[in-house]
Amino acid sequence: MSAGARHERLLEAARETRGFMPDEEGLALALVAERSTLAGFSSVVEVGSYCGRSTLYLASGIARALSLGAASAVVFSVDHHHGSEENQAGFEHHDDTLVNRETGRMDTLPLFRRAVEKAGAEDLVIAVVGDSPTIAARWKADAGLVFIDGGHGEAPAWADYRGWAPHVCEGGWLAIHDVFADPADGGRPPFEIYKRALSSGEFEEEPGAQTGSLRVLRRRSGSASRSSPHGSDPSTNS
Ligand code: SAH
Ligand code: MG
């Protein structure tokens, strides 16, 4: 591993890891994770780990904040590791080397684990393995940053938005990847959930953070987090 600050080594590791995060957008993502950690939030949630590329950008941001004196924080990276619809055989984003020969199913967990280990980031990254909406519905840790980059079909993108946006703390950030205003550039669901987050009145655009297809929103003060997707919050009786 090269010399230099830890956050820089983690950026190098991210760049060497397979995935769908361009460097410029990864750097913007790292900056949000750094701000979240500097603000005192102790967790970041990522939906869509794949092989760990965006995860290591997030870990780099946390590491930078720690080097500046922030209290400890981690990224919980959620994925069932069997790939999205768009990662399956026959689709544009399929990588045949990720198919487990015994089961015939995609399995990115071994690569993810290895990438985090190789980067020396096991203290900053926690793999949460399973179905994203099922986990979101039971999740209790507030997040300073939720990064949504899971399945991009209509059902998975909306389930991720409904399940995870409520976990963003007041003053925390919601980042969404693959948001394309022009349908010619990419599918609609990430754009639609981004629009919904804005029109909900709970989030506002974070100035200066929009990079490529990465959109970064911040939860307005006074807007309740953790409201249930069914309209009432079961954790409060008032
Ligand atoms: N963030 C990664 C890319 C993520 S690809 C990067 O930038 O490199 C999208 C991932 O979402 C896939 O690994 C897929 O397995 C995962 N995914 C899709 N639907 C899911 C679901 N319902 N639960 C958990 N993970 C899911
Ligand atoms: Mg993406």
The total strand number stands at 7
The CATH architecture classification is 3-Layer(aba) Sandwich
CATH class: Alpha Beta
Number of helices: 7
Strand coverage percent: 15-25%
Structure, described:
The chain is an alpha/beta fold and 238 residues long. It has one domain (6-123, 133-219): Vaccinia Virus protein VP39 (Rossmann fold), CATH 3.40.50. The protein is built from 7 helices and 7 strands, in the order ααβαβαβαβαβαββ. The protein has helices at 6-15, 23-38, 53-67, 109-118, 132-136, 154-164, 189-199, and strands spanning 43-47, 74-79, 125-129, 143-148, 168-176, 203-205, 215-219. Strands 3-2-1-4-5-7-6 form a 7-stranded mixed sheet, sandwiched between helices. Helix 1 (6-15) runs antiparallel to helix 3 (53-67) and helix 2 crosses helix 3 (53-67). The N and C termini lie far apart (54 Å). Residues 20, 149, 177-178 line the site of magnesium ion (MG).
What features would you highlight for this structure?
238 residues, alpha/beta, Rossmann fold, seven-stranded mixed beta sheet, 7 helices, 33% helix, disordered C terminus, binds S-adenosyl-L-homocysteine, binds magnesium ion
List the helices and strands and how they pair.
Elements lengths: L5 H10 L7 H16 L4 E5 L5 H15 L6 E6 L29 H10 L6 E5 L2 H5 L6 E6 L5 H11 L3 E9 L12 H11 L3 E3 L9 E5 L19
Parallel strand pairs: 1-2, 1-4, 2-3, 4-5
Antiparallel strand pairs: 5-7, 6-7
This protein binds S-adenosyl-L-homocysteine (SAH) and magnesium ion.
